[in-house]
Amino acid sequence: MNYFFDNYEFTIITNEHGKPWLIAKELCDYLGIKDPGRSCTNIPDCNKQYMIFDHLKTTGKGSGRGGDNGKRLIVNEPGAYQLVFQSRKPDAWTLQQWLYNEVMPALNATGEYKMQPKIETPPKLELPLPEAYEFPEGMEIVPTNFHEALLLAAEKELQNMHLIQALKKETQEKVMAKNDLKVAERTVVRATKIVKKVEWKAKGWDEMCNLVGYYSLTAAAKIIGWSPHTFIDHLREDGYLYKKGHHGNNLAIQRYLDAGWFVVKEVTNVSNPERAFLQTMITAKGLRRFWKIYGPQQKLLT
Questions:
Q1: Residues contacting residue 146 through CB under 8 Å, at least 6 positions apart
Q2: Domain that holds residue 162
Q3: Under DSSP, is residue 278 helix (H, G, I), strand (E, B) or coil?
Q4: Band (296; pLDDT cuts 50, 70, 90)
Q5: DSSP-based three-state secondary structure for 276
Q6: What tens digit of pLDDT does each residue of 225-265 get?
Q7: Domain stops at, among 59, 87, 110
């Protein structure tokens, strides 16, 4: 017998025990299942079988090779449920309710299901929008039918969406504020480092600008903030001085003498005033240059 549900036509076969069987392909077409054979693989053999329908037998070129032999796979109630549960189509739930609430009870009670007329143009169920449906304030709503259950679910879903959007907005604002604070903190740290980096230069440079005259290598080292031995070693390593002989004096490279960084002065021996010797000394200009090269900040970096 043929029955219509949601403007779909179904063939229902009742066995000798009054149990209904459906054609698997018809049910799969309604459920949006593209491969009925594959979907029915997991259905136990006790819940499916093949049946030949004489009215489906055809011959001729238009029906493929050999025509249609009328053989169809049919499923019983448990098999139909398995197909319904495989479908992702929203209408599958509606079909399940129809099988539960109408077809199966009617067949179990009377052995038949009253045929419904085919609806050429099914009426559309117009549900009010969730915003327009208001439940009494402070009253616990218990739906009494499917219509009310849908409305209640839609209202709760809408409330959840509004809550989620509000939480997202609040979270984004907090994240933005936190990021702005981090940027400000990084800016302050960078500015502090810059101040510390140039502070010693500004202070030391003011002192260097006031220097005049000539300074021994020992005196220059103390002004710059190095030990004399380390300072002189750096001047030799960096190519500003060279030592003449193993025990000789530290002499300036000629190019830096010509640049006015060093001078060679005759110095009187303190222990023997009649005896003098030549000594390399740093000019005020040279001391200012070496302050930039070997000042306190550079000392910390070595």
A1: 97
A2: 145-208
A3: strand
A4: low
A5: strand
A6: 889 999 999 999 999 999 877 667 888 999 999 999 999 88
A7: 110
Are both 169 and 254 inside the same structural domain?
no
In degrees, rounded to 5, the angle at the alpha carbon of residue 23 between the alpha carbons of residues 13 and 43 is 110
Q: 181 Cβ partners below 8 Å, 6+ apart? A: none
Distance from chain centroid for Cα 49: 50
Does residue 213 carry a pLDDT above 90? no
Of the three residues 178, 208, 238, the one that is the final residue of a domain is: 208
Q: Which residues pair with 276 in a beta bridge?
A: 268
* CA distance from start to end of the chain: 98
Tokens 């005033």 correspond to what residue?
Answer: 273
Coil, strand or helix at 13:
strand
Mean pLDDT estimate for the chain: 76
C-beta separation of 42 from 82 below 8 A: yes
The pLDDT value recorded for residue 300 is 42
Residues 6+ apart with CB under 8 A from 12: 1, 2, 3, 20, 21, 22, 103, 113
The three-point CA angle 49-53-59 to 5° equals 125
| Greatest mean pLDDT range, 55-64, 122-131, 178-187, 225-234 | 225-234
Record the tokens describing residue 78, joined without a space: 């448990």
Q: What is the pLDDT of residues 13-64, one digit of tens each?
A: 887 777 888 888 888 888 888 888 888 888 898 989 888 887 777 765 544 5
CA dihedral 26, 31, 37, 43 (to 10 degrees): -100
CB-based contacts of 27, cutoff 8 Å, min separation 6:
10, 75, 80, 83, 84
* Domain assignment present for 74: yes
